[in-house]
Design a protein that fits this description.
Layout (H helix, E strand, L loop, with lengths): L1 E5 L9 H14 L3 E10 L1 H12 L7 E5 L5 E9 H10 L4 H17 L6 H21 L1
Parallel strand pairs: 1-2, 2-4
Antiparallel strand pairs: 3-4
Helix pairs in contact: 1-4, 1-5, 3-4, 4-5
């Protein structure tokens, strides 16, 4: 089950039913099954506290993903900073919707097993994000 929550911010104006279908389709395309996935939209300050408390990182970020997968069942909590996503949309000359889609699928790709710790991984992750966003735009 895929759920969307908010903490200290309003949910962004997105088509969540379409996003759920898109996420399931993406997960299945990698031969995984959809388990329990929660997206928590929050502020920069809220996400900073998560980053400090659970990861011992003292910086702002757009997303933090906690992986609870069991075998090939994708489950996790994905925290997204609405503040940072909106700033990034302006910085990268993207629409807010596209930037939210990018961050949402970025979290899913982490749960599937992709990483972004070095340049090659970052390039692969970005390619997978772009493909998924194009699928969303053409199918949903």
């Amino acid at each position: 089950m895929i759920n969307f929550f908010n903490e200290d911010v309003d949910l962004p104006a997105l088509s969540f039913p379409a996003i759920k279908k898109w996420i399931k389709k993406t997960i299945e395309s990698y031969n995984f099954k959809t388990g329990d996935i929660s997206f928590i939209f929050c502020s920069d300050d809220y996400l900073l506290k998560i980053n400090q408390s659970y990861l011992n990182h003292d910086y702002f970020t757009d997303i933090i993903t906690f992986n609870y997968n069991i075998d090939k069942v994708v489950s996790g909590d994905i925290f997204i900073s609405v503040d940072t996503v909106r700033i990034n949309a302006v910085e990268f000359n993207a629409t807010e919707q596209d930037e939210f889609l990018r961050v949402i699928i970025h979290g899913i790709l982490h749960l599937i097993g992709f990483d972004d710790q070095n340049e090659d991984q970052i390039l692969e992750m970005r390619e997978k994000e772009n493909i998924a966003i194009e699928i969303f735009k053409s199918s949903f």
